[in-house]
Design brief:
alpha/beta, Rossmann fold, Beta-Lactamase, Heat Shock Protein 90, 3 domains, 6-stranded antiparallel beta sheet, 5-stranded parallel beta sheet, 13 helices, 47% helix, elongated
Length: 511
């Protein structure tokens, strides 16, 4: 016996008998009906505070009418199907009701049409809700992806939206390397005992499976299996290998025509997805392809910037510094010779030698700021100490460093990002803030460590003499600082202090 479809029904009619006839017609049509009858404006407005699947309304009610009821519903900005049911309604009024938003009109003498009309409107209403939900999902995706700074972060955002749209028990996102024809796992999740867990990769640079090669050649695939079983020749099991998926969607992650990877959601329930879901998931993946490409380019630009800084630092250290040292040595020899001859130019020679030595010290300081050798040799603390020492010598300001307890970082990339955040903060304070005192501190915490840079300059909101707004938070350096913080999962805040000056705080996770 076929199961009745639950139906919450609001009926706007002053006739109890007609109301019962409508409910009976729907029950005979296969609906499990629960209804409420109202016939005044106030009662309808109160009833609309509840959830209804559909509204049936008489066209003409004493002191109330179907068109007014429709206007009240439209003002609520809901999407409840509204059907006019009337004993007598001419064509002109029926057309007016349809233009106002009614989905259909049915005569009370023709209630055999009621159940099919309700079934149709419920189906169409479900499609409209699904479209709105997908539109909202895409809007949410766009907002969230704009701040993603790693493929893993982007993958979590994408799979969360896919879960809200379709639901899934397991999923994966792999990137694909053209030329090498290899797959690299970015993110994978499976369900174990009703609990979702991230699944680690079982290898790096894996060959694409036959199914993925088929998707590359022919496009996205929908796989529905009545008796789930692992097809080892086509699929690469991951997660719980004793529990194969019954429903699988697998699509390409693309940026334009370039294939960047694969995105798959899977369910242990049979027939969980359909062709429309596959098309929507492919559109979702295409929408995300640009984010993956942006993240790749941003990372590449940052790496290029870091490599260029190292290159310049090494050129200064190995090139100009060595030339200055040689000139200083020759100038000192010249001074000795002039002193032996008791030439009056000997004193000038000594002054030139001292100026060259100062230039050498400053150049070495700049070189070490661009290429922090101590960072690789002795860790972040030593690199920050050297930064403070060189900045005092170079800029003739007071710089202090405080680190009461050791902060050990095993991740050299994390230490490098933190160093450059401190370096950029210090340079901003000197160049744009005209600071006379700068302090850097590194403090451990239970879950997070804190790097802070405080100065006594003019503050964040002042402009420099050229009218530039670098201290207002719009400079490229500040954008790069924020990006570096996002890369390491840190929270960066920049605050103007009450008595001038700026405080830069970077709260970063322990690793």
């Amino acid at each position: 016996m076929q199961t009745s479809v639950p139906l919450r029904l609001l009926i706007i009619d002053d006739s109890r008998d007609d109301t019962l006839l409508m409910a009976r017609a729907l029950r005979q049509g296969g609906f499990d009906v629960s209804f409420q009858q109202v016939f005044t404006r106030e009662a309808m407005e109160t009833a609309l505070n509840e959830d209804w699947d559909i509204i049936l309304s008489d066209y003409s009610i004493p002191e109330f009418c179907g068109l007014e009821a429709l206007r009240i519903l439209n003002a609520k900005e809901g999407d409840i199907p509204f059907i006019i049911i009337s004993g007598v309604i001419d064509e002109e009024r029926a057309v007016a009701a349809m233009k106002a938003g009614a989905r259909d009109y049915i005569r009370k003498s023709d209630l055999k049409r009621l159940a099919p009309a309700v079934e149709r409107e419920l189906r169409e209403s479900g499609k409209r809700r699904a479209l709105r939900k997908r539109y909202q999902g895409f809007a949410k995706l766009g907002q969230s992806l704009s701040s993603a700074t790693s493929p893993q972060e982007a993958a979590r955002i994408i799979t969360t939206v896919a879960d809200e749209l379709f639901g899934w028990d397991s999923c994966f996102i792999d990137l694909y390397a053209h030329g090498r024809e290899k797959c690299y796992q970015v993110f994978a999740v499976d369900t174990f005992d009703d609990e979702r867990r991230e699944v680690s990769a079982e290898g790096w640079a894996l060959d694409p499976t036959p199914l993925r090669e088929e998707v590359l050649a022919c496009g996205p695939r929908l796989i529905l299996r009545s008796e789930p079983a692992f097809e080892h020749k086509n699929l690469r099991p991951f997660g719980d290998k004793n529990r194969p998926s019954a429903s699988i969607l697998i699509v390409l992650v693309r940026n334009g025509t370039q294939v960047l990877g694969f995105f798959s959601i899977q369910s242990y329930s049979p027939n969980a997805y359909n062709q429309e879901d596959l098309d929507t998931l492919q559109a979702l993946a295409d929408y995300c392809g640009g984010a993956f490409e942006r993240i790749r380019l941003q990372k590449e630009i940052l790496e290029i910037s870091s490599r260029e800084q190292r290159r310049l630092g090494q050129l200064l250290h190995d090139g100009i510094c060595q030339h200055l040292a040689g000139i200083s040595f020759l100038t000192e020899i010249l001074g000795d010779k002039l002193e032996e001859k008791q030439a009056p130019e000997a004193a000038d020679s000594r002054k030139i030698c001292n100026l060259i030595d100062d230039a050498l010290i400053q150049t070495r300081g700049i070189a070490r700021g661009l290429f922090p050798v101590q960072l690789e040799e002795n860790g972040l603390v030593s690199a920050l100490q050297e930064l403070i020492f060189n900045s005092e010598s170079l800029f003739k300001i007071r710089c202090t460093f405080r680190c009461k307890e050791p902060v050990l970082l095993r991740d050299n990339a994390l230490a490098e990002h933190l160093y450059y955040i401190a370096h950029e903060s210090l340079m901003n304070a000197v160049k744009h803030g005209a600071a006379k005192h700068i302090s850097i501190s590194l403090e451990p915490g239970e879950k997070h460590n804190t790097l802070s840079v405080r100065d006594d300059g003019v503050g964040m909101h002042a402009q420099n003499g050229n009218g530039n707004e670098n201290r207002s938070g719009k400079g490229m350096g500040l954008h790069i600082m924020n990006y570096r913080a996002q890369m390491i999962g840190a929270k960066l805040t920049i605050e103007a202090q009450q008595n001038n000056g700026t405080l830069v705080t970077c709260l970063f996770p322990k690793k």
